[in-house]
Every structure is written in C-alpha cells, then in structure tokens.
Amino acid sequence: MSAPTASAANPFVAWKDRLFGARPVHSPVRESNPEGVVVLGVDRPEHLRILGDSDQREFPQGKSRFRELELQREFEHVALRVQVIARSNPHGRGNAVFKPVIYLLDDRGEVRESKAVEPLYLDIRPFRPTRLLACVPLEKVRRFAVATPASALGTSYESKSRDKVSAKSKGGFYYATDPIKVNLPYVETGELIVEVVRANRKGEGC
Description:
Blueprint: H1 3-9, H2 11-20, E1 30-31, E2 38-39, E3 46-50, E4 56-59, E5 62-65, E6 67-85, E7 87-88, E8 95-96, E9 101-105, E10 111-116, E11 121-123, E12 131-147, E13 156-158, E14 165-168, E15 174-177, E16 183-185, E17 190-198
Helix pairs in contact: 1-2
C-alpha cells in the first residue's frame, strides 16, 4: 500500500506525518541545557528532560517539577507540538511517561493560564521509542512552564486496543504487530520534545 493511500485511510497517520514527520535539514531537534530557562526558537524542536533534581514549585494543579521555556518575543497565536517519550519506569516494570500541562506565565513568572496537553495520542512502532503526541494552541505567549498535574501521579495513560498492523518500513521490509493495549504509568519526571509553530488565527496550527 502506498504512503498517500495509507495516510488517507488513517486520519491519525496523516495528522502525525503533518505535525511530527521528517524534520527539515535546517531544523534538527536541539538538545536543551539540563537546567535553567530554555530559550525556545520558533519552528525549532527542543529536547528537554524533567529530572529528579529539576526545579520544583507550586502550580494551580499542585506542586510539580518543571522546566521553564521562553520565546524571543510575545506571539499572538502559536501551536505547541509535544512529544512525550516513554522511558523505563523508575518505580517498577515496563515504561512510564510524564503527563504534561502548560502554564502560561506573565512577566513576573506568575501563572496567568493553564492549558491541558490533550488529547494524547499513542504512537508505537517497532524499533522506535513509544511516544504520546499532542498539539495545543496557545495565545499571547512568551513564557511558559511545562509541569505535570499532581493528580496524575498514581494514574496511567491507557490506550484503546490497537488493531493488528501490517506495513512496509523505510528499510524495505514488512512488519506486523498483533492487537495491543498499552498502559503507561504517569510519573513526576520525564522526557519531551516540544516545538512552537506560528499560527495565523486563534486555535489554528494543530
């Protein structure tokens, strides 16, 4: 089956390819500094980690470790593309993920608005890290924090049962998977790739 036909038959594949497809050569994923404010460029994906020694503060949805990100200026309308990378569960078997929430900050660093990063869509493929993908429209944004709701800890991301998959890989061979259902515990630390993309109007870009 050709790629365009497969995408047309699967709206999720078309959405994933459009927002999270191959990166242009001039815009590779950049590794952020392990601490401090992350200066985020437009159309430049940034790989960041929220670790056990990351800064911690009280937010409207509870105390959380977080990373603060800052754009060069305020933008009226943007879309924030988020990839949550599943990693080994620090508290048990299998993998776990960070459930992100976005807190828009004013010039004093106070929270002026909270935005849930949802829905989160599961992307699981052979030979690739499992990801949760989301896109969130943001308005009048220059500074924001990525944290997690305190209520998420002790709960899990649960996918619906995925159908059997059979597809051709880039290497030229075919692979197949059995139907699966995924359960990923939410933890207070994690790994994400975030990217800000300009939008023309409110709510656009995703």
